[in-house]
Design a protein that fits this description.
2 copies of one chain form a homodimer. Chain A is an alpha/beta fold. Chain A is 42% helix and 14% strand. In chain A, helix 7 links the parallel strand 7 (188-192) and strand 8 (214-217). Chains A, B: This is Nucleoid-structuring protein H-NS.
Chain lengths: 311, 311
């Protein structure tokens, strides 16, 4: 089993990747001391294909810059994620010239073939790879089964179940893990959970019990909207003596408590509502950025009325 | 299945039961509109047996006072809890003269016989009863089995599993539910979970799936230390059409968001640490009331060093 901490990557969606070099370096050292297997240090999207103005460097993970910030690598491997259509493979060095060990490709189910094309490229360049299927709660079963068949014959190392909307309960993850095992039996699996319904940690340890090998987490749960499975809870739960919670508690109190005063993430009611409705959290994020940020009942009315209008 | 909202009772441990009459009335109406089956409106401890100075009226639930605050009862029944040794049965009216429908007796495993004596008294007075076994995570199996045998032959209606320290995972609750079913087969069961490890909701819905009949919850999770299973998440999860989330969202935004600015509860790291260590949260509460409230690593050191010194 391996832990992948995605604090800087998913947390960057909260603060536009505005983490200082010192901040990122301290997180890397803490995760290393804690025995965390991978740190996802950002996106490897191209500055030419996504908005780059006012966006911190962890959105792009320039290889030279990574080497400056982290002069010495530890046992904790580095990972970056790319979105289908937003990466320029000409900008990606061969793995042996990069600090990155793992590149994860995120895509919706409909784009699995595009995602697997990217996987092949990164695989040829020498990287470990994952394919992260987003919004899996909104997929039709026959499409999922077809996609898993393609994944199983691809060179990808790990297939990830991504609960983008934070709407899944234990029984849903159990169902999906069974499907993944059945239709992509030759692959390892991963879980990336969101905490809209306070289920992220519970779903992640359910995955661990069911043999899922890659568990995503983030310090203090930092991540978009409701955030992720907290790294400190996973470290406290796992019995493997290689994991230590203390280094993470240290950066948590030094870096993340002050940060949480400036930016919000976690269990916030509009995200619970979008999770219950199996909806993208963007409407909740818009509410929280408005004057009506605490008008939960009206938000609930709006979200449930739209469904009727769509019929 | 029945929901029991204990916001005023367990939340009272956060603010010394300093809820206004208007506040409690609005919570009662909201829970009624939401279809919640029981509202636990406080403790029924005796002012002569617990500290009463500076403590709000919901610590004692005087019958006359309850009738003034809630002139008209709805379909939502009222409940109060008592602690073994802190209730004066001379102060408890027969059920037909009281607004209370249910009296819950809380005790540690070692006091089950005392608890069942109280249960018998309340049962004779015409109340529904539960026996809530606190700190069940710290009990020895043979003592638990013996106690469940006594419970099974007593007049109590419901036996509650109480995760006082918020230290239990799904598999622990599953184990305990099996034990309760096996050794007290003639009783209904209940779950009262705490959220130290972000497991309160997950454990509660696990209970529901396993046939547990009474589910405790509180609005916005308000309760001592890490708080409880959020009522709004349970209402969103349950498919029974009698439950409505909207009335709870309304009081949540009007009453509980402002209250949370003044008092803290919920996922706070020292409570995660005490949960991981299966310890009472009191040391975490002391830390949060000190100048060192965010010194998590030092707190972790202290809590784990004590264990060694005890050996």
């Amino acid at each position: 089993m391996r832990l992948l901490d995605c604090t800087i990557r998913d947390g960057g969606l909260v603060n536009n990747w505005d983490f200082s070099e010192d901040f990122v370096r301290r997180v890397y050292l803490a995760l290393s001391q804690a025995g965390v297997d991978y740190m996802e240090i950002g996106y490897k999207n191209s500055p030419n294909l996504v908005e780059s103005k006012g966006v911190g460097p962890w959105r792009f993970c320039d290889d030279q810059y990574l080497k400056e910030v982290i002069p010495e690598k530890t046992n904790t491997k580095l990972s970056a994620i790319v979105d289908v259509g937003r990466v320029d493979i000409e900008e990606v060095l061969p793995a042996e010239e990069s600090h990155l060990d793992l590149i994860r490709v995120a895509c919706y189910l409909k784009d699995v073939e595009k995602g697997l094309e990217l996987v092949k490229t990164f695989n040829r360049l020498g990287y470990e790879t994952t394919l992260n299927i987003m919004a899996v709660s909104n997929s039709m079963e026959h499409e999922l089964i077809e996609a898993l068949g393609k994944i199983n014959t691809s060179p990808v190392n790990v297939a990830y179940i991504v609960d983008s909307f934070g709407s899944l309960y234990n029984r849903d993850f159990e169902y999906l893990i069974d499907k993944f095992k059945k239709h992509a039996p030759d692959k390892e699996f991963g879980i990336h959970a969101h905490n809209n319904l306070q289920m992220a940690f519970s779903n992640t340890i359910l995955g661990a019990q069911q043999g899922v090998q890659f568990l995503d987490c983030s310090i203090y749960g930092m991540g978009r909207a409701a955030g992720n499975c907290p790294t400190e809870l996973l470290l406290g739960y796992l019995k493997n003596p290689k994991y230590e919670i203390r280094p993470v508690l240290e950066v948590l109190e030094q870096l993340f408590i002050p940060l949480r005063e400036k930016f919000e993430w976690g269990y916030i009611i509009p995200y619970a509502i979008t999770g219950q409705l199996n909806e993208h959290p963007r409407s909740g994020m818009a509410l929280r950025n408005s004057e009506n940020k605490n008008q939960f009942a009206a938000f609930h009315d709006k979200m449930t009325t739209v469904e009727t209008m769509d019929s």
